[in-house]
Amino acid sequence: MSQARSSLLTVLDLVPFGQTGQESRFFALRLTHPEWEQWRPGQFVMVRPTSFGLEIPWARPLGICHMTARHMICFFQVQGRGTRRMAELKAGDTVRVWGPLGNGFAVEPDTPTLLLAGGMGIVPFVGYVNEHPKPWNVTMLFGHRESLSCYPVDSINEHVPLDSLREHTPGDLDNFIFSLQERMREYAEQNGLVLACGPLPFLRTVQKFAGELGVRTQLSLENRMGCGVGACLGCVVRTTEAWPVPAKRGGLIQVCNQGPVFWSHHIEL
């Protein structure tokens, strides 16, 4: 786990993705490079624009989409007051960033790896496929409700094969669940690795199939977070008897500093 640091970063640009209704609700936020160099795909940052002032005291957790030597990119969807204000950021504005936080996904270069994403769960996999030393061993299945143009799929598809299924009707959801199961079965037979990120019902389905098929699986949780450092206890999850620390088995742990990535058999959803 990388050492977290606080950095005051400058907004380079804010790029809207797709169109939902009369306005864009999906944005790529590109910031100057933070004061830390090492990170792992799957980690996140707490972001608080200085324009929040005293009106909005809490930072917002954003997954790290990608990093280069010059900048960091976070991707977010407008869902409430904080992200609505963040959608108004302009080049030159400043934001306070604390990170990198949490732990990242396992990277096993020679292991067939299946990425499973639901909706905004696609975000950490942009960095994952960019950083993976052997991307030809990686594929992705992506389920979503909004138009494909709302998500950073091109940044993934240029590195690894990506199959997407959009949910319009209950039948579409059934097809996606069937596809999940069949793809996970394929990777179980190859002694592969499955990595998943998305909303809770999606992760519960993945966890169920992981147990039935016996495929090694990691889950990245999207729990609501207040502080991002384990102090507020607002993002807890219960562990199973397989948790590696005996004293914590069957207890509650913080997603922000013990996760957000967990082995599927270590937690209850």
According to DSSP, the number of beta strands is 15
Overall pLDDT confidence: 92
The helical percent reads 10-25%
Structural class: alpha+beta
Number of helices: 6
Series of H and E elements:
EEEEEHEEHEHEHEHEEEHEE
Largest sheet: 6 strands, antiparallel, barrel
- Proportion of beta-strand residues: 25-35%
Structure description:
The strands form three sheets. Strands 1-2-5-4-3-6 form a six-stranded antiparallel beta barrel. The protein is globular and about 50 Å long. α4 packs parallel to α5. The chain has helices spanning 81-86, 123-131, 154-157, 170-189, 200-213, 255-258; strands at residues 5-17, 26-32, 44-49, 60-67, 71-77, 94-101, 113-118, 138-144, 162-166, 193-197, 216-220, 236-239, 252-254, 261-263, 267-268. It contains six helices and 15 strands. It is α+β, with helices and mostly antiparallel strands and 269 residues long. The mean pLDDT is 92.
